[in-house]
């Protein structure tokens, strides 16, 4: 299940990525060891919340108030010149990627189940009259082989930017030593600009 919600008072248009998963060797028993526990899949989520991790406020309330997000679970993923990002759990323990443009405040909230996050991460595309941003976040243990033109990897592991000029059509991740319960050695995530 993938859920997509556009933040209140925003006009952003967003799309949820279609994940292409190339299955490799592995064990479903290993996957079950962290299945359903998103905190075990992300060192960012497992860290203590700091003031910088909190979702921004609008009129004294978190800007996504009423959207089903558990504000105490939000963690900053950093940002680019145009967009700030957070990872947060919703009331159903789904993993959500929140993006908010710095210029006009347009935002997106894209959520996926912990099982889908573990298999292929989470992606989000948002654009408005003044901005465009793609974002890709993989669970711990997946290493991007090569970052396509127009995208950059932040310290948090989030890959963001504009890949419309890239020759590639997908991001390819390899399972590293830190992959927790992966059933695939290689995961391909379709770049969102390709429709």
What descriptors fit this protein?
five-stranded antiparallel beta sheet, 195 residues, 3 helices, disordered N terminus
Largest sheet: 5 strands, antiparallel
State the end-to-end CA separation. Answer: 20 Å
Strand content: 35-45%
What would the average pLDDT be, to the nearest integer?
77
Structure commentary:
The chain has one domain. A five-stranded antiparallel β-sheet has the order 1-9-8-7-6. Strands 2-10-11-14-13 form a five-stranded antiparallel β-sheet. Helix content is 8%, strand content 36%. It is globular. The chain starts with a strand and ends in a 5-residue tail after the last strand. The protein contains three helices and 16 strands. The N terminus is likely disordered. A hairpin with a 5-residue loop joins strand 8 and strand 9.
SSE blueprint:
Elements: E1 2-5, E2 13-15, E3 19-20, H1 28-32, H2 43-46, E4 57-58, E5 61-62, E6 75-79, E7 83-89, E8 95-101, E9 107-112, H3 114-120, E10 122-127, E11 132-137, E12 142-144, E13 151-153, E14 159-161, E15 170-175, E16 186-190
Antiparallel strand pairs: 1-9, 2-10, 3-16, 4-5, 6-7, 7-8, 8-9, 10-11, 11-14, 12-15, 13-14, 15-16
């Amino acid at each position: 299940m993938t859920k997509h919600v556009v933040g209140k008072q925003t006009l952003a248009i967003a799309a949820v990525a279609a994940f292409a998963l190339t299955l490799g060797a592995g064990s479903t028993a290993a996957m079950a060891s962290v299945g359903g526990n998103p905190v075990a899949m992300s060192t960012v989520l497992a860290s203590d919340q700091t003031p910088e991790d909190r979702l921004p406020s609008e009129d004294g309330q978190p800007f996504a108030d009423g959207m089903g997000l558990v504000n105490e679970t939000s963690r900053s993923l950093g940002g680019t010149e145009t967009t700030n990002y957070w990872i947060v759990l919703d009331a159903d323990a789904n993993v959500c990627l929140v993006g908010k443009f710095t210029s006009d405040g347009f935002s997106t909230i894209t959520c996926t189940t912990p099982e889908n996050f573990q298999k292929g991460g989470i992606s989000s595309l948002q654009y408005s009259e003044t901005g465009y941003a793609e974002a890709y976040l993989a669970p711990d243990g997946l290493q991007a082989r090569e970052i396509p033109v127009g995208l950059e990897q932040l310290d948090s592991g989030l890959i963001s930017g504009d890949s419309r000029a890239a020759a590639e059509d997908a991001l390819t991740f390899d399972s590293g030593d830190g992959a927790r319960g992966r059933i695939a050695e290689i995961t391909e995530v379709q770049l969102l600009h390709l429709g």
